[in-house]
Amino acid sequence: MSDKSALSDLPVGWTGHAPDADAFRAMAEAALASLPDVFQPHITDVVIAIEDIADDEVLASLDIPHPYELTGLYEGRPLTERSIDASGTMPDRVTLYRIPILVEWIEEGERLDWLIRHVLIHEIGHHFGFSDDDMHALEEMA
Length: 142
Prior knowledge:
GO terms for molecular function: peptidase activity. The protein has 142 residues and is mainly alpha-helical. It has a single domain, classed as Zincin-like. The protein is 43% helix and 10% strand. Strands 1-3-2 form a three-stranded mixed beta sheet. Helix 4 crosses helix 5. The longest helix has 17 residues. The protein starts with 20 loop residues before the first helix and ends with a helix.
């Protein structure tokens, strides 16, 4: 499932092997930039974090038994649930969990940049209060 023509679009220093944190972040930033322009003003304050794996507290709060089962997490209040009265809150945050994404990449054989994009768009979709169907449509638009 290799597309050699796309290799020139990959982050500098990425050889096709498991990327380091910097190359992983570059792929996430490229995915974020690929969202349609209409969404860009609403995601400028969303913090994108890259962590190797979710900690035990996060996994327990989501009732997820194994850390490889969580590839991404949105933390915040969706735009559809906000009020003008709410202020002083922490910025919304999307965390991508690098090792579970890499495990899925190895097991499924998808292009890694596409997989990162898929997880990121899904988590950004929660920021907008989208349903799973809405998120699939957003991914098709991006």
